[in-house]
Design a protein that fits this description.
Length: about 90
């Protein structure tokens, strides 16, 4: 999980630096701590986010089509304009 976390951190830093959105399609983020994460506009289509902590995460405009969000904690998360079609909640 550490290697995956490092990859995620590097992806998010690269996305923020280049003013692009993070591409996390089909990423395995099960159980990850994404509290206060800036995922604005990120593509998380098909991502595995089972039991992930997304407390206060910014998911505005994020693509979450087909994402697995079962048991994910979305308390306070900004989901405005996010696409949750086909997502498992």
């Amino acid at each position: 999980m550490v290697a995956g976390g490092v990859f995620l951190l590097l992806s998010l830093r690269r996305a923020n630096r280049n003013t692009e959105t993070a591409d996390l399609i089909n990423a395995d983020l099960n159980g990850f701590d994404l509290i206060n994460a800036d995922l604005n506009g990120a593509d998380l289509s098909g991502a595995l986010l089972n039991s992930a902590d997304l407390i206060n995460a910014d998911l505005k405009g994020a693509e979450l089509c087909g994402a697995d969000l079962i048991n994910a904690n979305l308390s306070g998360a900004n989901l405005s304009d996010a696409n949750l079609s086909g997502a498992d909640l």
